Request: fold
Amino acid sequence: MTSTIPPGYRPSDDEPFMSDVMLEYFRHKLSVWKAELLRDADLTLQHLQEDTAKPADLSDRASAETGRSLELRTRDRARKLAIKIDEAVRRIEDGTYGYCSETDDPIGVQRLEARPVATLSLEAQERHEKLEKTQRDG
Reply:
């Protein structure tokens, strides 16, 4: 498939929101991001498989286990992010990408550039965070 994205294209507020070119831009951005995540996950898996020897020294073993645990947590976060990327691509396909899942208002180009998997507008996200904070603190 040939890209319909003009060279050097960046979405802006000066064009129709979620135009075909803008949607293609975000679809490409998401697919590149997912490919990077999968490549990193493969490298992590290779590293974990290669690093199976148990160090004899207790502090070395503890350090190795800490590193292994960190790698596994990082890999789990990447797995969850890959799922969010797939969901964002589905939203592009069904025409709901770029619109807040709560209010149906546009999320905004700058927010999507910063967080292409965003499902909430900045205002809705702030409401969620305030609600979470009051529930946590209360």
Notes: The mean pLDDT is 88. The chain has four helices and no strands. The two ends are 53 Å apart (CA to CA). The chain has one domain: 20-137.
